[in-house]
From TrEMBL:
GO cellular component, one term: outer membrane
UniProt-listed InterPro entries: BamA/TamA_POTRA (IPR010827)
Domain named POTRA: residues: 21-95, 98-172, 176-247
Protein name as annotated: POTRA domain-containing protein
Pfam families: POTRA
Top-level taxon: Bacteria
Length: 248
């Protein structure tokens, strides 16, 4: 009884003051995006004072988010229960969602289309999501850079009439090891190290190759009593490519 009276008193005070603190934010009929994803698009959250103007702005923000993701004519309405349970509800009508019917890779790929498509998370006959496509582009850029293309760039285009998604790939020039330079290393050790490391002269630089080179070199010298080993890439004196510097 005491708890009920206290709750009633709090509600009456909030009503008189014209303020109400949100207890819960709820999204209804959102099939394409999770509650967590939509919550990142709005300002109001549980624990904050309810504002009708902000709720309207948040509803519009959700509509814009759907539109940017390729949905046609999304509509969002809000309902708020002032006294109890102080719940803010976003009622969502998503509208017609876009799908990907065709997926193309354009440019000098350097790798098989099947291998590159395996990196892409967007699938045929599934929903087109702008953010997911952006993530796919980043994954492709990371792949090419890890394969020795530091200036790789990816652009995308979604043709709404044909429902066709195209990735335009510009991988740029592949970075190579122009020379391997040793500092403070005995001649016998240089010969042994060159056999151990995966990075070779006139061969492409890869992130994995650089990591394995660092580990192999550190292990080799540690077994011989050296505890300081520096392995790094330096700009080649001749221009574009790089030199691999190994120093102890």
């Amino acid at each position: 009884m005491v708890a009920i009276c206290f709750r009633l008193a709090a509600c009456l005070f909030a009503l008189v003051a014209g303020e109400s603190r949100i207890r819960e934010v709820v999204f209804e009929d959102n099939r394409a995006f999770s509650d967590f994803t939509l919550a990142r698009e709005i300002e109001l959250s549980s624990g904050e004072i309810y504002s009708e103007a902000q709720a309207t702005a948040d509803a519009r923000a959700i509509e814009i988010f759907y539109q940017s993701s390729g949905f046609e004519k999304p509509r969002v309405k809000t309902v708020y229960h002032w006294l109890w349970p102080r719940k803010l509800i976003f009622k969502i009508r998503e509208g017609r969602g876009p799908t990907v019917r065709r997926l193309r890779l354009k440019g000098k790929l350097g790798f098989s289309a099947s291998r590159l498509k395996g990196i892409i998370g967007t699938e045929i006959n599934r929903l087109y999501e702008a953010r997911k496509v952006s993530e796919d582009s980043n994954h492709l850029v990371s792949f090419f850079r890890n394969q020795g293309y530091p200036h790789a760039e990816i652009a995308t285009d979604y043709d709404t009439s044909k429902r066709r998604l195209t990735f335009y790939i510009q991988k740029g020039k592949r970075l190579k090891i122009e020379n391997i330079v040793f500092s403070g290393v005995a001649p016998d050790d240089t010969t042994a190290i060159k056999r151990l490391i995966p990075l070779k002269k006139n061969k492409p630089v890869t992130v994995l190759g650089l990591q394995e080179t660092l580990m192999a070199t550190a292990r080799y010298f540690r077994n011989r009593g050296y505890y300081y080993v520096d392995v790094r890439l330096t700009r080649s004196r001749k221009g574009y490519d790089v030199e691999l510097l190994i120093e102890v």
